[in-house]
Design a protein that fits this description.
The structure is a homotetramer. With about 110 residues, chain A is mainly α. Chain A folds into two domains: about 80 residues, Helix Hairpins (Orthogonal Bundle); about 30 residues, no CATH class. In chain A, about 70% of the residues lie in helices and about 0% in strands. The two termini of chain A are about 30 Å apart. Chains in contact: A-B, A-C, A-D, B-C, B-D, C-D. Chains A, B, C, D: This is Nucleotide pyrophosphohydrolase. Chains A, B, C, D: InterPro entries: dCTP_Pyrophosphatase (IPR052555), DCTPP (IPR025984). Chains A, B, C, D: Keywords: Hydrolase.
Chain lengths: ~110, ~110, ~110, ~110
């Protein structure tokens, strides 16, 4: 997926509806977290094994929809604040590689 | 940004550290929502105006980092469940266009 | 409100339905955060002024319901882990009073 | 725990620091969800069994602190909007008893 294609479509969608007034970074961060929680809700009572098999259940489409909702608000948020996603990913990945070296983090989920 | 490039790098990063055992869909959904909330935390006491100016403050880099964290877990989640992001975005966008017609939703944030 | 009265009722409600199997601390923390996000959803597109007037709108009852949902999962979580709420509140309040002295925090929302 | 005792103390704490300006319902809902997510973060990579044993690990005090943080913002939110917690709990419990009858919900976490 090329994110810039979707960023443009989402911006047009918002502008056609005059939603810029609602799309402050603060409100978009809220909406993003609300959509992420709707994804969590699907999994909250499932065992790890049930969670791994979710796509072959009748909740599979809901999972796809929530993923798209999170992506939509994430792209819109980054667009409104003019954040370069590739640069942000590159910086964060470099920093994570230093904090979570293979040597120290192999098989461990401990925060560093 | 081409998401598949990052999906591959994130998968390799996880595999090198033997993190597949932690990366159940359930756990990744939790991690995604936790990162989205870290973005919310930056904005929680700000006025709408202050939130719009965040990138020119000393919190700008934290915003970029949290955006990358949310993207990382979103791509990892979609990878683990083999979700086609383009297809998910296309389906959701089509459905939103029907639910939120320009006629009914112009200037209104009401849920439909 | 005396929380112990509700803790007992919520426990009985769960046991009658044999929900103890679902009520791991992990799952209850997820459910708590999902309910908190449902409260956030009500406010996500509102101005600060609109948010202050919410109880006199047709969303007022939804706010009351979500507050009760968050309280229910918070009490259930504390019950399952045998957490003494009064002691937890006392410890946290004492620590906050030291971190956020009136001298340093008057009129400032800065995290310390 | 008698919630009204804590509601009063939390209100005084906020007023002494002139934090009423930050404590809009919208901002408090955000803060509540952020604290709930900090609780989720503690559990995100744990197995159900590890999550049940959390209080006897070095993360036990962090769990207590986060529970107190969620309770603090929940009480503050209810105070600012003048929500009667006992009444809200009574209404919600009655409604849940109807939706989740023992007959239909025994041993099932399905949403109704």
């Amino acid at each position: 997926m090329e994110t810039s294609d979707w960023t443009d479509r989402i911006r047009t969608f918002a502008e056609e509806r005059e939603w810029q007034q609602f799309h402050t970074p603060k409100n978009l961060a809220m909406a993003l977290s609300v959509e992420a929680s709707e994804l969590v809700e699907i999994f909250q009572w499932l065992t790890p094994e049930e969670s791994a098999a979710i796509m072959s259940t009748d909740r599979g489409q809901a999972v796809r929809d929530e993923v798209a909702d999170v992506m939509t608000y994430l792209l819109r948020f980054a667009d409104v604040l003019d954040i370069d996603l590739d640069a942000a990913m590159a910086a964060k990945t470099a920093s994570s590689a230093k904090r979570y070296t293979v040597e120290h983090s192999k098989g461990s989920a401990a925060k560093r």
